[in-house]
């Protein structure tokens, strides 16, 4: 069963800031399977520099993770990213926002990887 966790820590600002940036939601949707920044940039049709900035914000917020490295078509080592959550709910009814998130399980990642091949 997917894990649902609550967050009420000081990272609320970091998460909200990352989600509020243009293209962040698109990157998270596209990163359901491991992808390089270059692939994400091409898939979403955004400049690579913008993509790298959004990736950094999403990694800092804990919404995206670097899963490792692979060789690009040009033979360079490149980082591969995948989102860490499938759902995120923000509650603004208190003094501080709280988050409820459905984290991706490793089993779901493996299954999705097999389906993509």
TrEMBL record:
InterPro entries according to UniProt: WH-like_DNA-bd_sf (IPR036388), WH_DNA-bd_sf (IPR036390)
Region (Disordered) location: 96-117
Compositionally biased intervals (Basic and acidic residues): 103-117
Gene3D superfamilies on file: Winged helix-like DNA-binding domain superfamily/Winged helix DNA-binding domain (1.10.10.10)
Stored Pfam families: HTH_20
Protein's name in the database: ArsR family transcriptional regulator
Organism: Natrialba asiatica (strain ATCC 700177 / DSM 12278 / JCM 9576 / FERM P-10747 / NBRC 102637 / 172P1)
